[in-house]
Amino acid sequence: MPTLPWTVPNPPPTRAEATVFASRFETRTLWGALKFFLRTPVIWRQVSRAPGAYGATLKAQPLKRTFWTLSAWESPKALKEFAASEPHRPVAAGLRGQMKDSEFLTWKASTDDLPLDWKDVLRRFR
After folding, report:
1. pTM score, two decimals?
2. Residue 84's Cα: distance from chain center in Å?
C-alpha cells in the first residue's frame, strides 16, 4: 500500500475554505509499522463516512516505518470530532507507544485546490 488515492467522502462546495490536516508518523520498529499498517483499513473506512471530510489520502513507506496522512475538512470542528470519535481515538491511543516520531500540520486551503499535491505537502514538512 504505497499511496491510497484521494477519496472524497463529501464533495466540497466550490470557492470555500477547507481545513487541511497532514501528519507524519514514524514507528520505532518494523513491528510497529505492521501494527500501523494493519489498523489503517478501519480508519480509512471511518474517514470515508466522516461528516465534514472533503477528502483524504495516505502515503505509506512501511519498510522505512513512515506513514503520511493528508485530509481536508469542512472546519476545524469536523476534524476534531473525527479525531475524538471511535474507532480513531482508541486506535491512535493504542499505537502511541509504537511511535518514534510524529508531526502534525494544519493550514487553510481553497476547496478549488483539492486534491492537494503530495509534493507540496511534503515540502511543508521540511
Report:
1. 0.94
2. 14
